Amino acid sequence: MKTQKKLILSTLSIVLLFTACSINQPQVEPIDTKTEQEMKLKAMKAIKTVAGSLQSTLNMKVKEGGLLNAATFCSTHASSLTKNVSKTLDEGVKLKRITDKPRNSNAQATKEQLEVFKEFKTKLSNGEKIDMIVKQKSTNHYQVYKPIIISGKCLNCHGNDEKRNPEAYKIISKKYPNDKAINYKSGDFRGAFLVDIIK
C-alpha cells in the first residue's frame, strides 16, 4: 500500500513539474503568410544594402587592380566594410553571413543554423528551387535565412586547385591558414545571409 502511494505521489510530482515548465515557456504562434512576407521584405532590404555595397566595392577593386587587388581587399577589409554598412540598417535589424565551411571562423554556423542548412541542401539535391526561410524565435523576434549559392566568379577564390587563382589564393591563405571555404563547384550551397529582426 505504501509503495502504491509513493508511486502515485511520484507520478503527480512529475506531471506537476512538466506542467510548470510548459507554463513558463513562451508560446510562439505559427507564422502567418502576411508576417512571413513582411520579414522577407525587410531581410531583402538589408541584404541588398550590405551585399550590394560589398559587391560594388569588389567590382571596383577588380577594375583597379585585377583579381589580386580584390583578394587583398577581401582578406583585409571585407569584414569591416560589412560591419560598417550593417550599422546603417533599420532599427532592430542585424545581418551576418554564416556557413558550414568557414574561411573566417566567426562565420561558422551554429548547430541550430546547420539544421536550417539541411532544409536548403535537401531541396537543392531534389532539384527544388530554394527560397528564404523564416524562423520565429519569440513573439516579436524573427530570423530570415537567404541561401548563398556559388557562381562561376566565386570559384577564383572558392573552387578546387584547378579553378582557384593561385596568386589570389596565396594572399587569402596567408590571412586564413585554416580556410575551409574551398573545393566548391558552381551551383553549390555556400551558406546563408542571416537577418535577425526584432519588430
Q: Report the sheet with the most strands, covering strand number, pairing sense and barrel closure.
A: 4 strands, antiparallel
In whole angstroms, how far apart are the ends?
A: 57 Å
Low-confidence stretches: 2-28
Strand content: 15-25%
Strand neighbour order, sheet with most strands: 1-4-3-2
Average of per-residue pLDDT values: 85
The backbone outline, from C-alpha atoms, is globular
Helix tally equals: 6
Structure description:
There is one protein chain. The chain is of the alpha+beta class. The chain contains six helices and four strands, in the order αααβαββααβ. Strands 1-4-3-2 form a four-stranded antiparallel sheet, with helices on both faces. Helix 2 runs antiparallel to helix 3 and helix 2 packs across helix 6 (166-175).
Summarize the structure.
The protein contains six helices and four strands. It has 199 residues and is of the alpha+beta class.
